[in-house]
Design brief:
By secondary structure, the chain is α/β, with parallel strands linked by helices. It has helices spanning 4-18, 21-33, 38-58, 64-87, 110-121, 135-145, 161-172, 190-196, 205-217; strands spanning 97-102, 125-128, 149-153, 180-184, 200-201. The longest helix has 24 residues, at 64-87.
Length: 229
Amino acid sequence: MASVNDEIRNALREALINGDIDTSVNLTRKALEQGELPLDLIQQVIVPTLTKIGQDFQDFVIFLPELMASGDAAVKITGILEEVMVSSGQSVSSLGTVVIGTVEHDVHDIGKNIVSTLLRSQGFKVIDLGREVAPSAFLDAAQREKADIIAMSSLMTTTRPSTRSTINLFTEVNMREQYKFIVGGGCITQDWANEIGADGYAPDAASAVELCKSILVKPTVSGAHSVYR
């Protein structure tokens, strides 16, 4: 027989899949009342569920409205869990600051949301700019937040040039060397990362976290990191 916590977890997964924000919030609060740890909910429920949703979108099992609804629900409950972690004295911003966003003209953000959630759970301060982020918005946030890393996601080939435009803007204002740039998403490849002068490329969320850690721990070699693919 499933435990109460298992039942809550399963119901939370279902609410996320359905993009039901109110139910997701209520179940998250109920799980916390039952003694669930915020980090466990993030790593064992939210991230795997979002990964499945993202794959379902790629496989045409679900479509853009469902994808965006699930992403919005995940952002809401992740914010609640982060607040609990901070109030209990758990550090969520000790490793460095990452400004992240889906590039201009691209509305897909499930993958970006997974990366944001994992980075926060691993101790990074994450400034999530959302989707359709203009190059100037990346620049403003990087300066305002004193970012260490700027992470750009692009799913559609038509929006891939926006990653180049963003890096070019930083170069034009003589601020390129102040930040490390990483890129990822369905249309991004290692070759593209090298071509635009990014400091790193990650093919999935887990490797994006490891990439951020490696960039902040040791100097970046010439060209984009290629160890992750």
